Amino acid sequence: MKKVCLVLGIAILLLWFCGLMIFDYKINHFVIDKETKTDAVVVLTGGRNRLAEGVKLLNSGLSDRLFVSGVQKNISLKELERRADITVKTDREITLDKVASNTFENARETNQWIEKQKLKSIRLVTSNYHLLRSLVEFRRWNKRVKIVLHPVYSEKVATSWFKSLDSFCFIAREYNKFLAAQLRAIMVHVERKGD
């Protein structure tokens, strides 16, 4: 019995590690679409350079509106515009969501805004390591909207994570969160089919 448990444990660990390798490859090999216009640019706060990238996309005319999800309650648009890395060169619409505090809530609050605005497409801007999990959460709320993925890369997260223990732990944690989001999405799908 102990041998069976050991073999099973090793098999699960190997499967997890293979999944991690695939996850790592995907998050570091996105093809960035810099031409497709969308109804809105959606930025999920929490990572380096995300908001600055979203504003750049808005300034370039790839969309007519920007939705920033997960902004701290005490932050205003004027305060964001004072940041050194942000230059708003447009009068296009910018909406700040101050309700969301995690990826699940980002997706929920953004979807409510999408429905209210009657949008058909969005460009989703978030860190490359966060993009796959975000997509899973967004698809749970809305399967019909077209989503153009727009990763933002951070110099603080090494792409060769096997050379840095900190980066390995960070990517492994993100991979586990992605797996948990996938599992929740499957469970919701099974529950809906059963109703």
Strand order of the largest sheet: 3-2-1-4-5
3D shape = globular
The total beta strand count reads 5
The chain-level mean pLDDT equals 88
Distance between the termini: 39 Å
Structure in words:
It is a single chain. By secondary structure, the protein is α/β, with parallel strands linked by helices. It is built from six helices and five strands, in the order αβαβαβαβαβα. The chain has helices at 2-27, 50-59, 77-81, 103-117, 128-141, 165-194; strands spanning 40-44, 65-69, 93-97, 121-127, 146-152. Strands 3-2-1-4-5 form a five-stranded parallel beta sheet, sandwiched between helices. α5 links the parallel β4 and β5 (146-152). The longest helix has 30 residues, at 165-194.
Q: In summary, what is this structure?
A:
This protein has 195 residues and is an alpha/beta fold. It has helices spanning 2-27, 50-59, 77-81, 103-117, 128-141, 165-194, and strands at 40-44, 65-69, 93-97, 121-127, 146-152. Helix 4 (103-117) crosses helix 5 (128-141) and helix 5 (128-141) packs parallel to helix 6 (165-194).
Attribute tags:
five-stranded parallel sheet, 51% helix
Sequence-ordered SSE layout with sheet pairings:
Layout: H1 2-27, E1 40-44, H2 50-59, E2 65-69, H3 77-81, E3 93-97, H4 103-117, E4 121-127, H5 128-141, E5 146-152, H6 165-194
Parallel strand pairs: 1-2, 1-4, 2-3, 4-5
Helix pairs in contact: 4-5, 5-6
